[in-house]
Structures are given as structure tokens and as C-alpha cells.
Design goal:
This protein is an alpha+beta fold. It contains 21 helices and 13 strands.
Length: about 700
Amino acid sequence: MFNGLLGKYRAVVLSVAMFIFLDAGVLVLNFYISSQLAEDASNVNLAGRQRMLSQKTAKAFYDYDKRLSEGGESESAYQELQQAVALFDRTLVAFDQGGATRGASSNELVLDAVSSDASRAAVEAAKTIWRPISSEFKALFATASGTLGHERALRRLAPMVRDNNNQLLKLMNDLTNDLETIARNKSEILRMIQAGAITLAILNFLLILFHFIGQLRRSDSVAEEARSETTEILKNVREGLLLLDGNLTIGTQYSGSIRDIFGHQEYAGTSFRVLLKSLVTESDMQTVEEYIKLLLNSSVKENLIGSLNPLSDIEVSLPDDRGGFQVKHLSFRFNRAIENGEIRHVLVTVLDISELVGLRRELEQAAKNNGLQINALKELLHVDKDSMMLFMTAAESSLVAVNDILRQRVNSSSDFRDKVVSSQRIMHRVKGDASALNLPEVVRAVHEFEQQLEEMADMASLQGGDFLPLTLALNDLFRLLGDMKDVVEVLGVTPMRQQESVAVSTLDSDRLGSLVTRIAAEQGKQVTFELAQPECINLPAEQLKVVQDCAIQLLRNAVVHGVEPIAIRQQRGKDDAGRVVLKITQEDDGYRVSVRDDGRGIQLETIRQRAIEKGLYSAEQLDSMQATRIMSLVFDPGFSTLEEADEHGGRGIGMDVVKANIQQLHGRIRVANRPGQYCEISFLIPAQVEQYEVAVAV
């Protein structure tokens, strides 16, 4: 069985096994002797320290005796003497019997007892000399300085230290020399063993090398032929092909199309990150890496993660031959490269699908345009000709006004925010008019534009480049109006370019009622609508348009914010259907327009909480405000009590539009409110120009 598995590689395998065995033996022996050498080196160092301690003990003793006799400070010398004696004694015991002592770095070291004859003789002789000296030192340390016992111990120790100091030094020096000799002998043995093992390893390596040279000569020609064929294939294949290993490193072989797509440079051996540099974000790159790791994991089914490919279709900017950049659409495909049942690499296929994407976009745009015209046709069928003409003219003028605002050159951050607020007001009017005419396609498009404006309003700082997406979205709105004009022309109706006056005297009750009913249905509510107005309203066209715009915004606000859901109304003992009344009355100084609902009313606490959440005011500031001032916050730009915005409310624009319209006409706004019962917002269209103000009645 062994011969069957190895086959023609048996000699090579055996040679390699012998080489590994020799290396392993050398390593094990080297480790063992190295540990012994480290231990011997430590013993040599400690023996050398014993020489130093024998002298340090004598010096510390004489220093202490002198200071004591002279009456000077002796505590430091006394402590030094204690430390030297204790360390010398402990280390000598360790050399004699084996045990622990303190190393040079104050760490604990465990020594084996010395075993050579010379070392044993030196230690035994040192023990004989040191034992009585150590006993006297213990007697000295056991008595207090100045006592008779302490003085006697000093007198006994003086001749003992003097007579035996040199002898201890000589014995510790003999111990050190013997330990150094033992260490050198072990080192020589290691060198001899290493030399022999290395010689055998070299001979074995030469044998392996000789065998392989023969094999290589026979296989080089075959390999070269195969390599030539592979190179030819990779050179001419149209797709970009490359291999990635587990570290996401590009292999040495890749198709010539890779250079055509990404640039003429060398990619072999570089990271996949280099190929995608500046093409994808760091977040996307991390996603790609995680996806490739899943492919390299054999426990993960390849067909289950195919849909997770993050680079299935990406748009990139690549350098062209003229030094500029061109936009391309690339599609990456990742497949496992399996060899002998194991996942060895990931095959990456890169396709340039720019033409395909361009064709697909053309088809989608054509379908979209057709869909827009069909939807616009459906929406226009129920709108009377005069109303449609008015809306088209007003909407187009509003879009032109927004376009002019976006094109204005400004410098300060506040000016940029003014552009956003002005655009929000205009677009909200357009959405209100479209909603009143039941043009959902226009409402949807304007709502998306408002979402972009809201995102910009929430940004910490604004720059001119931030308005570029708005310009593109505005072009889509112009295109939508153009499609509607085309439909109108098909119907034989041509929208008026200018509308100087309005030949109507009353507001359209049916249209406003339909608006209220439709918004209520979308909100899951029931609302009845009532319009009370004089038989004739003699207002200029501009003022009548303002009344209509404000009425639409206030009606939307009443349905969305005021009237409660049916369940809440039932809990409060109210009718299931809420009631909204739009009333126009003639007064001495003008016309008063009011919108009243029987809903929840304006909740001051809700306004307070939202103001704190938006960072407009602190709780302390709001506590010092009058209720009328807090209630007037609902007219501030961007302020809303709704948590989430939809097509009918929540952006804090509608009431701001009302305020701006009335301010334009120098009118007055009044709010009458009773929480849980009703809310009435009215404004006066003056016959004469007055100053604008907001008056709130609670």
C-alpha cells in the first residue's frame, strides 16, 4: 500500500523524510543543550555575584562598624550589610543543596546543586568558612544597636571577616571558573553535533537536488508548451480573467483584457484592492472581501450566495488613452476554482457591459416616458380644461422660479439655507395644487423633490455642489410637465402661457371637498367638508390665488394633524366622521378666511417636546414663553409635530407657506384653539396694506 501511494515519488519522499528527521533531531538537541547553556550561564553569573558579595559583605561590615563608633548615621550601612549577608548565604545554600535564590533582575531562580568535583570542593570549603561567620552575623542582627550583645558580636566578627575575606573570594572564584569550564565543554559538544547534522543534511539535500534536476529536465518541455498555450488563450480572450488566493492576491496569470479594462500596468502578485482602487468605496471593498471569503469557505454553498455579489453591475470612471476619463459599466463574476476537491482560488471574470447598460437605460427611459404619458393622460381625463390650464401655467412658473433660485450665486451658509427654504415653499404650493386637482403622478414627483430638500436642510453645512442633484431632479419635473403638455395637445387643449386674471368668483367646493375626502381616506379617517362663502368674492386674481393656496394647505393640515383617527374619536365620545369647515366672510377691512376642525386641537406639550427634540429651544427657555408664542412655532419653517413625513404633512412647510402667503398680502393670522375640541386658523385679506402679524387666541 505504501509503495502504491508513493509510486515514482518514493525516493524523493524518503529523502525528504530523512532530511526532516535530521533537522528535527538537531532542533531537539539544540533546544536541550541551549537550555543547559542558559542554565550554566545563569550559574556562572550567580557564582560571579558570590565573589562580589564576599567583598561587599566585608566592606559593608567595616563601614557599619566605623559609622557606629563615630556616632554617625549607620542605618543605611546596616541594611546594606543585612542584604549582602542574606543573599550570599541563600545563594551558597542553593549551590550546595539546590533551591531558589534571587537573580540579577530580582526574579526567583531555582538552581541545581553543583555536581563536579571542583565545584563541590569549592562549595564545601566555603561552607566551612562561612558557617561560623554566618552565625555571628545572625547574632549581630538579632540584637539592637547600642546594646552589649550587639557590641560583642561586632568584636567577634571583626577578626573573622578580616581573616577569611580573601579565602572566600578565592573559593567563589574557583567555583566561577569551574562552572565556566563546564559551559564551554557543553558548547563544544553542541557545535560538533550541529556540524555533523548539518553535513548529513547537506548530503541529503544534494541527493534530493540531483533527483529533482532529472525530473525537471523531463517536465520542463511539457510545462513550457502548456504555458505557451495558456498565455495565448489569456492574450486573446475578450473577458478579463484572473485568479485570487485566500489573501486576495492576484495570480501570475491573467488575461490581456484586464490591462485593457483597468490600465496597462502589472497586476501579478498585487492585492485585489489595487485593481479596485478608486473604483469602489472602502465600505464596498470590505463587502467584496467578505463575499470572496464566503466563496473560499467550503461549508458555504456557492449557489446560495451568488445573489450576494456586490459587483454584479457597477459604474466606474477609468482613464482613457487621451489622459481623461470615461464612464464604464463593469460586471464581476466570482467562481470557485477547485483542485483535488479543495477550493484553491477564486476565478474572477470581468465583463465590460457598458453597451448593454446603455441599451437597457434607453429602453427603460422609453418605457418610463410612455408610462408617464399614459398616467398623465389618465389624470387629465377627470380635470376640466380651465383648471388644467391654470395649473400648468402656475406649475411651470413655479419650477422656473425654483430653477432661478438654484442658479443664484451665494457665498454664506445662511444664504444656501435660504435657497432651500424658498424652494420648499414653492414646491409645497405646487404639490398642494396638484393634490387638489388629484394629479398623483405630479404629487409623487414633487414629494420626492421635497425629500431631497429636507435632507439638505438637515445637513450641518451646505455648499454649491450639494445642489447639483436638485438640478437633475428639477429637469425630471420639467420633463413631466412637458409630457403632460403633450397629452393636453393631443386632447386639443393648449395651456396658457400667462394668466393675468381669474374669471371665477368662488372657490371650487367640489374640488376642495374631493381633496379633503381623498386625504382622509389615505389617513384612514372619515371627514366631512363644508364650504361657506359669499356669493361673490371681488378679489384680484393674485389675492384669490393666495386664498386658494392657503385654503389647500390649511385643509390638508386640518385632516392630517387635527381630526383624530376613528378609534380615538370614539373614545372621546365624538362622531366617527370629523368635520372640517372652510368659511369666508366679508368684514369692514377685508375678507376673513377660516378653516375649523373638531379634532384634537393644537397640543402645547407636543409642540414643547418637538421644539426640545429639534434643539430649537431648551426646556428652561420654553418655560419662560407665553402659550401664544409656543403655539406660533407651528408657523416656523421645518417645524412639525409629526414623527414621520408623508405626501400630505410632516415636513413643517405647509404652515410656513400659509404664513409667507399672508405676509405677502400684508394680512393677519389668528389661531383659536381648545385642546381636545377644536382648532380654527383664520387669516384676514385686508382691503388696505397693513403690517403682517401673527395673533394667537387660546
